[in-house]
């Protein structure tokens, strides 16, 4: 384990950042094509930890604000008037911040936040949208906000070179973490031990934050989709599922791998692992510009249904099983989500499409892929007691599932393999390809 900090990417310089901010703002203005409307973006404020006096959660600027300012500072407001352009209001550094945090006051490139009030008063009769963290004191137009946010998301989804460079930094740190904990994946060690070493290596390798709470689940805990690591030791022959990611300057990596605690899969584990892998590769092949995200999901769902029929957990014609959603008893989530600025980036339902809240599993987005999109592809197979014992599920899929076989596998846990995929004109690029997959 090396303690060296990787060099910052050559794009991540003041000039490189300024150039991208200008490009992003121009792209957003073009997409909006505003007449007389004005827009404000709030950075958000520090959030106190309840009951802990002056303790605060780590501050994270709202993604929409961060995207257009690259500034991780509370209280700021970026404003836009189509007649006059952008105005960047920032909170001056206080004496307390200098005293307690060693903050410097000379790097604030913006107008003092106290001038925002006047800026708003001058435009009080015009329609206004408040994006980012809601700016207090403004009467905003919700219909306008929905429309502008939708257009902004469209721009944000196509990652620029600076964003990709930061995602690659986050990926390298995550990859180093997963490599470092391999010797710990043996019976007797605990989920918590793995978490600690994993996160330490993320930070040693350049991550500046966690993209999300680390998931480590051994044995039956591997069937809990977002399991919080516990002191439970791994048992002989168990599966260990790790889903984790480092973050770098707001940009996330999100990788899942599943390992056998004893160094080798049992035949049943190997068969289902191979099946999850096949589903992932089939979905990956569909990650091309123009492909509907729903079809990427259905491609993986069909491979899983076919495999589970062969394995003996499902019965029937795979196409029909997918139509009825029977594979979702064992693959109870969507194939993935947008990843980038934060671990859940700007996924959306394409304008004019119905948000299907009642479908199971609920897909996080419903739109065609475009070059520059980065998605996770993360099929999985789990034996989840809560689903297998759900009366409604048992009734709905009575004939489609071999419930007795499932019952015998109740301690199996689960398998998930997750990669991050960049859509390009030349096809999919797996950003996480340096993290080994076992089969
Ligand atoms: Mn994910």
Describe this protein's structure.
It is a single chain. 34% of the residues lie in helices and 15% in strands. With 439 residues, the protein is α+β, with helices and mostly antiparallel strands. The strands form five sheets. Strands 4-3-2-1-5 form a five-stranded mixed β-sheet. The longest helix has 20 residues, at 161-180. It binds manganese (II) ion.
The number of domains: 2
Strand content: 15-25%
Q: List the total number of helices.
A: 13
Q: Summarize the amount of helix as a percent range.
A: 25-40%
The averaged pLDDT comes out at 94
The best one-word shape is globular
In CATH terms, what is the fold-level topology of the largest domain?
Creatine Amidinohydrolase
Give the helix/strand class. alpha+beta
Ligands, ions, cofactors:
manganese (II) ion
Low-confidence stretches: 1-7
CATH-level-4 superfamily name of the largest domain? Creatinase/methionine aminopeptidase superfamily
Count of DSSP E strands?
Answer: 16
Q: What is the topology, as strand order, of the major beta sheet?
A: 4-3-2-1-5
What is the CATH level 1 assignment of the largest domain?
Answer: Alpha Beta
Write the CATH architecture name of the largest domain.
Alpha-Beta Complex
Largest sheet composition: 5 strands, mixed
Evaluate the radius of gyration: 24 Å
H-E order: HEHEEHEHEHHHEEEEEEHHHEEHHHEEE
- Give the N-to-C terminal Cα separation: 25 Å
Q: What is the topological layout?
A:
Elements: H1 14-32, E1 38-42, H2 63-69, E2 77-81, E3 85-90, H3 95-101, E4 111-112, H4 116-122, E5 128-132, H5 142-157, H6 161-180, H7 191-204, E6 209-210, E7 215-218, E8 239-244, E9 246-248, E10 251-252, E11 255-260, H8 267-285, H9 293-311, H10 318-324, E12 374-377, E13 380-382, H11 385-388, H12 391-396, H13 403-408, E14 414-416, E15 419-424, E16 427-430
Parallel strand pairs: 1-5, 3-4
Antiparallel strand pairs: 1-2, 2-3, 6-9, 7-8, 8-11, 9-10, 12-15, 13-14, 15-16
Bound molecules: manganese (II) ion.
């Amino acid at each position: 384990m090396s303690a060296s900090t990787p060099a910052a990417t050559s794009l991540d310089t003041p000039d490189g950042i300024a150039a991208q901010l200008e490009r992003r703002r121009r792209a957003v203005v073009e997409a909006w094509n505003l007449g007389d409307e004005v827009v404000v973006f709030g950075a958000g404020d520090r959030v106190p930890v309840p009951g802990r006096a002056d303790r605060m959660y780590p501050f994270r600027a709202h993604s929409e604000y961060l995207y257009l300012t690259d500034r991780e500072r509370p209280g700021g407001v970026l404003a836009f008037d189509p007649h006059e352009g952008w105005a960047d209001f920032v909170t001056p550094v206080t004496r307390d911040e200098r005293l307690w945090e060693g903050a410097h006051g000379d790097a604030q490139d913006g107008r003092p936040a106290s001038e925002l009030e006047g800026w708003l008063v001058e435009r009080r009769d015009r329609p206004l949208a408040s994006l980012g963290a809601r700016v207090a004191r403004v009467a905003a137009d919700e219909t306008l906000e929905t429309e502008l946010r939708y257009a902004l998301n469209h721009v944000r989804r196509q990652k620029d070179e600076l964003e990709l460079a930061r995602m690659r930094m986050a990926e390298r740190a995550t990859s180093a973490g997963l490599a470092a904990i391999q010797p710990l994946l043996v019976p007797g060690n605990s989920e918590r031990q793995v978490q600690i070493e994993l996160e330490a290596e993320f930070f040693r390798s350049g991550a500046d934050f966690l993209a999300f709470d680390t998931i480590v689940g051994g044995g039956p805990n591997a069937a809990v989709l977002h399991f919080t690591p516990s002191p439970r030791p791994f048992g002989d022959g168990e599966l260990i599922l790790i889903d984790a990611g480092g973050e770098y300057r707001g940009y996330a990596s999100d990788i899942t791998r599943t390992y056998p605690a004893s160094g080798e899969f049992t035949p049943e584990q190997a068969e289902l692992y191979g099946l999850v892998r096949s589903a992932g590769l089939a979905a990956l092949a569909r990650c091309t510009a123009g492909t509907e995200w729903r079809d990427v999901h259905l491609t993986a769902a069909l491979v899983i249904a076919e495999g589970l029929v062969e394995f003996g957990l499902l019965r029937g014609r795979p196409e029909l099983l997918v139509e009825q959603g029977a594979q979702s008893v064992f693959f109870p989530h969507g194939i993935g989500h947008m990843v980038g600025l934060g671990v859940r980036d700007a996924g959306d339902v394409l304008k004019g499409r119905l948000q299907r809240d009642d479908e199971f599993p609920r897909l996080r987005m419903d739109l065609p892929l475009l070059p520059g999109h980065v998605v996770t592809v993360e099929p999985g197979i789990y034996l989840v007691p809560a689903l297998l014992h759900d009366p409604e599920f048992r009734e709905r899929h009575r004939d489609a599932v071999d419930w007795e076989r499932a019952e015998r596998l109740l301690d199996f846990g689960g398998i998930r393999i997750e990669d991050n995929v960049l859509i390009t004109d030349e096809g999919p690029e797996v950003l996480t390809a340096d993290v080994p997959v076992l089969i």
